[in-house]
Design brief:
By secondary structure, the protein is an alpha/beta fold. It has helices spanning 46-52, 78-92, 105-115, 137-148, 153-166, 168-180, 183-188, 208-215, 234-237, 239-250, and strands spanning 7-13, 16-22, 32-35, 58-62, 97-103, 120-128, 194-199, 222-227, 267-269. It has a single domain, classed as Rossmann fold, CATH 3.40.50. The longest helix is centred in the first third of the chain and has 15 residues, at 78-92.
Amino acid sequence: MDPVVWDVREIDVDGRRVVVRVSPTVDGSVPIVHVHGFAASGTYLLPTASLLAHRATTVVPDLPGYGLSHGPGPALGIPELARALLGVLDRLGLDRVVLLGNSMGGPVSLEVAHVVPDRVAGVVLASPAGGVHNQPFSRALVQLARDSLRERPAMARIAVPDYVRFGPVSALHLFSELVRFPSLERMLRTPVPTLAVLGTRDPLMPSPRRVRELARLAPEHLTVVVIEGAAHAMNFSHPDELAHVVSCWLDGCEVIDGPATPDAARVFQLRVR
């Protein structure tokens, strides 16, 4: 598979400079927009985005105030980030997309889906953070610290500069908002087809037993898949498995084990009915 040549563009969204990476156009496809987590840029999403760019036009923005998209004023909250993401879609002329959000990118994607469901063909929530399992705030901080020890070392070379650029005050404020976001309730009431992908080594996710209990409440258009061994930033650490899961889901197929490589993690779809 040839490497993806990204077209890096600067666009204006409500007076803020936003940097977006756009893959070559795939005619007839529904574009996939990758949405990063809190305090991070879209850089760590590129391993998975590159694998999916051959099946659909792919967009990886740095939302306002993140990465290369420096923005004036305080950090935007989740509803404001959702509006900014809509602004990105408008400026790029994307009428209908699939949103693939990691961590905080999940709540941001859910917000967009609830506000304008006609523009969202589907939502993929990779390690969706927020909710009771991440409360109180002190518990979430411990979970975040534990996860940092479980991610691949190469992730730190991306995350640390992003976090420093974002700033500790903004990071703490936004992380506190993320912890309080009702991700589970929004996910169970999502108005569009939704795929939730969880990792078994992600401290910010509930236990597998609790996941099965919660999945039984899910509507028919919510699919839950587990990647064994994945921590929180699975878009970076397990791109082959995540891209395989997303491709199966987009094709309407049952999700089974991923690529037949010796180091591939086991992937399985929860059967909850």
